[in-house]
Amino acid sequence: MKQGQLPEPPLPESDDPPLRLDPCVSRPTGLTVLPPCRSSGTAGESASPGLSVDLVNANPLRCFQAYARIREMAPVDLGHHYPGWGLVYFAVVLPRVGEREFAMPHEESAEKVAVKRLSKAAVEEFLARGGHENPFREIQRMQWLGDNQHVLGIVEALHDEDYLYIVMPYCEGGSLVRWIFGDRDRIGDALGGSAAVYHNLLENIEYLHRHGVCHRDFSPDNCMVLKNHRIVLNDLAMSFRMPPGDLTATDPGGGFFGKPAYLPPEVVSGYRCFSASGCDLWGTAVVLFNLVTGEVAWRESLPTDLRFRYLVLAGGLSSSRRGRSSPNERAAEVLADDGSGGLRSLAEKCLDLNPLVSDLLEGVLRLDPNERWETRRVKSSLWLEAFRQLG
Question: What CATH number does domain 174-390 carry, 3.30.2140.20, 1.25.40.10, 1.10.510.10, 3.40.50.300?
Fold first, then answer.
């Protein structure tokens, strides 16, 4: 790849709209940042001293704002995706007020954004090696489907010689990971409870499926909480168009990819055909388990995983519905095989589950895809019906 040249974007799938990328300038010179105005209309001192323009759209037809990086907010390294992949940093929007002048907003009214800066060289190398996480597809799908109601929107997508910049709304609440494993006590008050969160997640995947798209990488990491506490989907880099009949083949040369803790067994095992909508629905059920227990369900959805064997194959999820004070016989046998004793606390939490939640989890999280509940049955489950009646 020549310097400044974009890696080859993916061919549009079906009726996908074209990708929109604007040129930009990073750390531009010769720009003026005016201090914010007081309510009287006179210039006042900057509410955020030290801010300077870090990024500006260089398309003369679309150059309407610039971005100033917030130095106090540490960037997030994305090296776990691929070495040198990039980072996410946080910035405020500087509205344009003149040809080369931008306004510094007051701190209380500043619009924050997250800027995902990706190395073109790393992206090209990753895709050339057969990598599946495609940022061009992510931009396409966010530009097409991002409504900040179901899917996180995109402010704009930019590029210079070395980097791609995906500018997105700042998600005040972070990802669901923070709520499930760090702030779980506030889910009821702030997010409306587990049923409200799960109902929100179902709406999101239904929105994607109505547009013929499978997320393919559904997990708490990719569920973002907005300031209004609405949860939206993020990171569509592994998404794909759902074929007629809802069965699809995995990439013939790529094998398994994704998060094995949130994908169904047939996908983790590398089966060539699987239900696209069922793949996302399975992920929502695993997230629901996280929500109601505060526990990771399993490392991978395979019989070799002891927790998966206990919860799914031995019926540990259904223990609470039997009104027992101890797990069923098959589950007890798996517990006996647990030399570390780590399954005991998980078993106790399963016994304490709301029976209606257990019923839903057991209906979706089954080894045989043909026996699993589909979205329609999940939505009509007694647990969600009770939630809707209360709402």
Answer: 1.10.510.10
- Tell how strand 156-159 and strand 101-103 pair up: unpaired
Contact 47, 40 (CB under 8 A): no
The answer to whether the beta carbons of residues 66 and 56 sit under 8 Å apart is yes
- The position carrying tokens 């209380």 is 108
| Positive/negative CA dihedral, 248, 249, 251, 254 | positive
Q: Decide the pairing of beta strands 156-159 and 112-119.
A: unpaired
pLDDT tops 70 at residue 143: yes
Percent of the chain scoring above 90 in pLDDT? 57
| Of 335 and 125, the one with more pLDDT | 125
User: In whole angstroms, what separates CA 23 from the centre of its chain?
Assistant: 27
pLDDT digits (tens, 9 = 90+) for 240-286: 888 877 877 665 444 567 899 999 999 998 887 889 999 999 999 99
What's the token pair of residue 357? 């939640």
CATH architecture of 53-169: 2-Layer Sandwich (3.30)
Q: How far apart, in whole angstroms, are the C-alpha atoms of residue 278 and residue 375?
A: 8
Half-sphere exposure of 182 (CA within 13 A, CB side): 8
How far apart (Å, rounded) are the C-alpha atoms in residues 66 and 34?
13
CB-CB neighbours of 345 under 10 Å: 11
Is residue 89 predicted with pLDDT exceeding 90?
yes
Domain boundaries, the chain: 53-169, 174-390
The answer to whether the pTM exceeds 0.70 is yes
